Amino acid sequence: MSEEKSIGISSGVDPALDIERSKRVDPTMEKHSHDADEAMKVFDEMQGEAIELDESTNRRLLKIIDWHMMPIMCCIYGMNYLDKTTLSYASVMGIKDDLDLHGDQYQWLGSLFYFGYLAWEYPTNRLLQRLPLGKYSAACILIWGLILCCFAAVKNYSGAIAIRFMLGVFEAAVTPGFALLTSQWYTKQEQGSRVNIWFSFNGVGQILGGVVAYGIAVGAEKHGSAIDPWKIVFLVTGLLTIVLGFVFLWIIPDNQLNARWLKKEDRILAVARVRVNQQGIGNKHFKMYQVKEALLDPMTWAFFFYALIADIPNGGITNFFSQLIKSFGYDEKQSLILGVPGGAVEIVALLLNGWVGHITGQRILASLGGLVASIVGMLLIVALPLSNDVGRLIGYYLTQASPTPFVALLSLISSNVAGYTKKTTVAALYLIGYCAGNIIGPQTFRPKDGPRYVPAEITIIVCWGVCLFLLVGVWLWYRRENKRKTLFTARPEYVRLENQE
């Protein structure tokens, strides 16, 4: 039984809970309450008129939505990865000498981004619920692009600290915001593949970053430059982010009801097509009971601990991959361009993961392949002799398949957690774990261990091994809950309330 079939407020809450809560509220009054979802406005305006949505119309709407939503979401998410990893390229382009970084100051710059992310993660999730989703997300994108440009003006370590922290603050809205957009516009069956598609653009960001950084480094060496090459990298990526932020603001609506690229009747149909999710399209009213349910749900904490443990390796590799490649025996410029294939591996792994998860209905099990490949890759880096630089480089490329389970769990938050307040709470806790792991990760790469960093590499292997067991536990839990809920809803006394979704 697939984990996608989980129903109700949460996979970890008794299915009777929603039914009993619903009975306490008159459904004819509920739709006029601030407790009701934004989608209820559509059905109020229809005044009982039936909404017809045949398969051909559904396919037509999905095509329109995909062509408008996915390209800009993919581009922004690619920049989200590139912008926070620009520091890794700069680390071999002279930033350490220019800012007089010594000791573990570079490690702390890597971690400080996630301190900002961590500090603002829950507030930004509340703002994503309270404010217009599209406009708030666009504002965060524009501000983080401006902040990244400001990095080119940094002259010392303290200035770099401020920039990295604020960059984390404004990038904190992207992943939870995109998860909400995906759950708002796509059915449960469509969400897993769409999350994998836009998340795969992390790999595109890595490819673009490597090519741009290499081109700037070679061009500056041959022809000289008015400013330091690492500063040009920050300016280019920051300005590109700002341009894409304005495109995002123009294209992405707050919900189906104000999408300028949909006809009025298609807006109603776009809401109707996701009715099957039983999650609505957005509710600005904060519901404390849903926060409590999130905190009592075992899956919330399973997701949190997975993100925490899995992102210790991510935080280390993300900030040190250029230096890691350099330790294999390559020079600075070679380390920039040799990081590019790693992005291609991530793209292939995530798209393949999304496809297999979609056709099998087993997103968690499909994602295990990427994690196993990553463990094998890190074992190659540790075990192969130093003279085997090609084999160790291939090992690094295999580690870039590691995000597949993280994305699978993110898509489960999007599709399996109902209740807008609960969804934002679970997403916030998941990304708080992500932040904490990424803060710890760079600290495992100690200066005294360079250039090999063997203790960090062993730590990465152990973390990914623990994650394998966590994922199997999550899969078994969903499997049990789905069976239990199927039996419950099959009972004769089970009554589905009108408009309960």
UniProtKB/TrEMBL annotation:
Pfam families: MFS_1. GO terms for molecular function: transmembrane transporter activity. The keyword Iron does not apply. InterPro entries: MFS, MFS_dom, MFS_trans_sf. SUPFAM superfamilies: MFS general substrate transporter. It comes from the Eukaryota. The chain crosses the membrane at residues 136-154, 160-183, 195-220, 232-252, 294-314, 334-352, 364-387, 393-413, 425-441, 453-478. Belongs to the major facilitator superfamily. Allantoate permease family. This is Major facilitator superfamily (MFS) profile domain-containing protein. It comes from Penicillium arizonense.
